[in-house]
């Protein structure tokens, strides 16, 4: 249990550092969509999934960006993020299924 927690924590730190190197709302949208695609496609374990990709994607920054902008911009960003992330995960899942055939 401690080994898994340490692995996820180290992975999350790496993912957060990678995200920190990128800035801007559109960049965050891309990060979240790419993270969802990789989760659906690669189906990674604790270190890469919950750790690196969990730290790389960011719900807290997404929430901050939607709360500190105009209602119209927040609604557009919300729809783009939700639609993009779900579509990306579904695409990744489809790619994973093709790989295992």
From TrEMBL:
Residues at which Na(+) binds? 54, 57
What molecular functions are annotated in GO for this chain?
fluoride channel activity; metal ion binding
User: Which UniProt keywords are present, listed alphabetically?
Assistant: Cell membrane, Ion channel, Ion transport, Membrane, Metal-binding, Sodium, Transmembrane, Transmembrane helix, Transport
Where is this protein chiefly located?
A: membrane
Q: Name one GO biological process term.
A: cellular detoxification of fluoride
Spell out the family assignment given in the record's similarity comment.
Belongs to the fluoride channel Fluc/FEX (TC 1.A.43) family.
State the protein's purpose: Fluoride-specific ion channel. Important for reducing fluoride concentration in the cell, thus reducing its toxicity.
Q: What is this protein called?
A: Fluoride-specific ion channel FluC
Q: Which gene encodes it?
A: fluC
